[in-house]
TrEMBL record:
Belongs to the sulfotransferase 1 family. It is an enzyme of class 2 (transferase). It comes from Pyrus ussuriensis x Pyrus communis. Its EC number is 2.8.2.-. This is Sulfotransferase.
Length: 350
């Protein structure tokens, strides 16, 4: 019987009994943007929530051949890509893209394309976030997403197709910094959970590789190398290229996903409709994204809880180069230099 066609048994791996003990063995750093601390696991930094989710995914996630996985370092354009993937795959099912039942008009893209490693409250089954993914019907391909670095992905994922979106680190840093301010106030983090940290201090940590799922450059490089080794299975896209020539890149994405736009669809304006539906202007003005909330289920030894963030926090400016308005010329130059040093030799510019 195919997975997803049967009643799903809850995955056995729950919160490791020795979670605190396990965390205490890992290298630790002051966190910014996530509350608590960052822990270094398999060469990358995580908050405890994302780390636990990553371990869950590594232990329990079973990929299917038809899965599409969107991977990204946080704040690189995940929300936009999720919207595009849904709009591309669903464009024939919903008659008109503007039909009031279209998922993107009633849900935030993060509620439509689930993460491997964290679950929104609505889709939590039992106490393991992976159980919900197993329950999805086998008949249609699953659209999934992750911030897990390539080298730490659950092994079964490596046989499937992956789209990676990368963005220049200057805008990523600013985007995350602004998001973290919102996140901290929404979750009323107590001072000891959210150490007050200046932007300059957070910048220093980011430059030293300490950020959610960082080092940022190692994250990008893992997927970049995979895309050069397995171009048919791993598509590498840059946020800035998507902004510059959206039509070209959306067509390429649709082809990669096995849902190319026909010339008839192009003539009838379907491609343009998909782009407009997923545009920053359209999505950020929808009621659900203006006033809705995204709630992440959090399991811990002290009970189950949730973290939340306003959907509007996923839509700030949506522009290339906003970092110039927030970072000094020296900071911008420093990030450019690190990027050149880390990625230049691999022929990658961000
Ligand atoms: P996540 O990692 O929390 O999912 P992610 O979606 O990757 O966040 O990144 C958010 C950034 O994408 C925001 O950038 P900014 O802070 O510089 O503004 C957000 O505005 C931008 N964004 C969201 N939706 C779109 C869209 N439809 N088009 C272009 N940019 C978008």
């Amino acid at each position: 019987m195919a997975p997803g066609d049967r009643e799903v048994e809850e995955n056995k791996m729950i919160v490791p009994e020795n979670l605190e003990e396990m965390l205490s063995t890992l290298p630790k750093e002051k966190s910014w943007g996530a509350g608590g601390c960052f822990y270094k696991y398999q060469g990358f930094w995580y908050s405890s929530v994302w780390l636990l989710g990553t371990i869950w995914a590594q232990q329990c996630f079973k990929a299917r051949e038809t899965d599409f996985l969107l991977a990204s370092s946080p704040k690189s354009g995940t929300t936009w890509m999720k919207a595009l993937m849904i709009a591309i795959v669903n464009r024939k099912h919903h008659g008109s893209l503007s039909s009031s039942s279209h998922p993107l008009l009633i849900k935030n893209p993060h509620n439509c394309v689930p993460f491997l490693e964290v679950r929104d409250q609505e889709h939590m089954i039992g106490s393991n976030p992976i159980t919900y993914l197993d329950s999805l019907p086998a008949a249609s391909p699953r659209l999934l997403s992750t911030h897990i670095p390539y080298s730490s992905l659950p092994k079964s994922v490596l046989a499937g197709r992956i789209v990676y979106i990368a963005r220049n680190p200057k805008d990523v840093f600013v985007s995350f910094w602004k998001f973290s301010e919102q996140f901290a106030s929404k979750n009323n983090q107590k001072p000891q959970e959210s150490p007050s940290i200046s932007m300059e201090e957070a910048f220093e940590l980011f430059c030293n590789g300490v950020s959610t799922n960082g080092p940022f450059w190692d994250h990008v490089l893992g997927y970049w190398k995979a895309s050069t080794e397995r171009p048919d299975e791993v598509l590498f896209v840059k946020y800035e290229d998507m902004k510059r020539d959206t039509m070209h890149h959306v067509k390429k994405l649709a082809e990669f996903m096995g849902h190319p736009f026909s010339s008839e669809e192009e003539r009838e304006g379907v491609l343009q409709e998909v782009i407009e539906l997923c545009s920053f202007e359209n999505l950020s003005n929808l009621e659900v994204n203006k006033n809705g909330t995204f709630q992440v289920h959090v399991a811990s030894q002290t009970g189950q809880n949730q973290l939340q963030v306003d959907n509007s926090a996923f839509f700030r400016r949506g522009e290339v180069g906003d970092s110039k308005n927030h970072l000094t010329p020296e900071m911008l130059e420093r990030l450019d230099k690190i990027t050149q040093e880390k990625l230049g030799t691999f022929g990658l510019e961000l």
